Amino acid sequence: xxxxxxxxxxxxxxxxxxxxxxxxxDYITPLNFHLSLFxxxxxxxxxxxxxxxxxxxTALVSAGVWYCSNHLGVNAYSWxxxxxxxxxxxxxxxxxxxxxISRIRRQLDREKRLNxxxxxxxxxxxxxxxxxxxxxxxxxxxxxxxxxxxxEAYISSRSDAQFSHGICPICKEEQLARWRRGEP
Length: 184
Description:
Layout: H1 3-28, H2 40-49, H3 52-71, H4 80-124, E1 141-142, E2 148-149, H5 151-158, H6 169-181
Antiparallel strand pairs: 1-2
């Protein structure tokens, strides 16, 4: 079993233990003292460390434990509708926590992955900087040792750029005109 799987199981076990502990505490406290807010903590732990689907199930278990501890114990509501309404509202709250925390975690993981990809891409980038001494006539570039190189060779040796050659429309017309006139 990997370390991640162990961590997920430990987080899920902690969450379920917290839910049961809160259920017992909720059972022995009077109805006027609500602990439903605290059930969001195990839901949030599950959402952050385990994932969205287990967090939704943890929200459902939390709502069920909350219902059992408050409604099957000594506490009684004045009207039967209230216990179902409160349970539904608690489940909605737990579900909102589960979905929000799991989305935040997914976005954070995505951002970390994109940052790592960006760092890798930046590590592979080679840049030409500074002034390039280039001949105004033949367009050769002088290197630091004073030797002159074709511009393609100079740039290719200092970057990952590759060249393919073609002719632009203006040069094409000029060369055709020179050819028609019989000039070299």
